Structure formats: C-alpha cells, structure tokens
Amino acid sequence: MFSALIISGVNYTIQGQIWLDNKSIYDEAEGYLDGEEYDEAIILYQLLEKKGEINPNINFKIGVCYLNIEGKKVLSIPYLEKAALKVSKNYKGDFYEESAPFEALLKLGIAYRIANRFQKSIETFKILKDSVSGTQLEQLANYYLNQVENAQLLHEN
C-alpha cells in the first residue's frame, strides 16, 4: 500500500509539471542543474523542448546535462552544436535568454573529443580562443586544445 502511494505521488508530480507554465518548468530545471542533478534537469528541459520552447539557451542546458550523464555524453553534440550557433558575451541565462554562453563552444569541443572527433574538437577550441581572448575561458580553451592534440596523437599511434 505504501509503495502504491509513492508511485501514485510520482505520477501526480510528473503530470502536474505538464500543466506548469514554461517559466516555472525552466526555473525548476535550473534548480536541478545548479545542484548537478542532471538526470532530473534534463527531463524538464526536454519537456520544454516538447512544448516548443527551444532556443540556443535551452539547447545549451540540454547539452550540458547530457555531457554530465554517463553513457550519454555524445548525445550532447547536436544540442551544443545548435547552441554554439548563437553565443553571446551578454548571456544572462534566464528563461527569456535567446542565446547561449561562449561556454557552449567549450562544452562542444569537449563533447567532440569524447566522441573521438578530434579535428572538430580542435577547430571548436580555436574558434573559442579567438572569440574570448584575454579571458579565463581562453585559458581553458588552450588547456583542452593541448589535451585533444595529445589525445589525437595517442589515437593515431
């Protein structure tokens, strides 16, 4: 009986989320993302996607979730590719955001490396470096660029 109540409660919660407005769903997903609960966050971001609420910001968030879920990292690539098409230095990350942060390029380069798409990874890190010169993000791009170049050499040998 107790397990039936729990299952019933879960169904009620999931069904209840469908009726929440998109901003509330986004805010709840952000809470999960901030807490590094990627499995929970991605469900809500994908609910927004199914409801037609998709843009570079939400693509970025879905990509980040996939990149942090074991066994699903390469699924991040199409989302991060879409996010990387519209990056902005003025990124705020709220529900109304229509662009992605430059971090989308960093995450995309990492995803390409994981998928052994070394040349795409190198290209992406170089684009990032050129876009954010003089910042900490440029230093991260240099670090990962060095990593992927080494990985490519090891893979070839």
Written description of the protein model:
The protein is mainly alpha-helical and 157 residues long. The protein has one domain: Alpha Horseshoe (Serine Threonine Protein Phosphatase 5, Tetratricopeptide repeat), CATH 1.25.40.10. The protein has helices at 2-18, 22-34, 38-50, 56-67, 76-84, 103-114, 118-131, 136-156. Helix 2 (22-34) packs antiparallel against helix 3 (38-50). The longest helix has 21 residues, at 136-156. It is globular.
Give the helices and strands, then pairings.
Layout: H1 2-18, H2 22-34, H3 38-50, H4 56-67, H5 76-84, H6 103-114, H7 118-131, H8 136-156
Classified by CATH, the class is Mainly Alpha
Helix content: over 70%
What is the approximate shape? Answer: globular
Oligomeric description of these chains: single chain
User: What's the gyration radius in Å?
Assistant: 18 Å
CATH fold annotation: Serine Threonine Protein Phosphatase 5, Tetratricopeptide repeat
Output the helix-strand order: HHHHHHHH
Distance between the termini: 60 Å
Fourth CATH level, the homologous superfamily: Tetratricopeptide repeat domain
Structurally, the number of domains stands at 1
By CATH, the architecture is named Alpha Horseshoe
Output mean pLDDT. Answer: 90
| Biggest sheet overview | none
Low-confidence stretches: 1-13
- Work out the strand percent: under 5%
Please report the total strand number as a whole number: 0
